[in-house]
Amino acid sequence: MIPLLVLWARIDQRHANATSLVAIIPIAIAAVPIYYFQKGTPQVDFRLALFLVIGSVVGAYIGARALKLIPERPLRYVVAAVMVLVGVRQILIP
Fold first, then answer.
1. Domain that holds residue 7
2. Taking 90 as the threshold, does the pLDDT of residue 86 lie above it?
């Protein structure tokens, strides 16, 4: 989502990062009932999800604070490098 916001919507990197994080909230809320209330066994482990939520909130807070300190250009390079590394990993270790 971030590359699309930067390249197509012409949003700066900082706003694209923040916007993509905010967009995840309603997507996740809409998905919970679908995965939890389907026929058969629920596919949501709320105990594990609690730890993920706590880690995500702490990480988002720290990341948002750090984002203010990083200039635009290096931030763009770091995001691109992480995406390339993840892509290479997906190809080599599926």
1. 2-92
2. yes
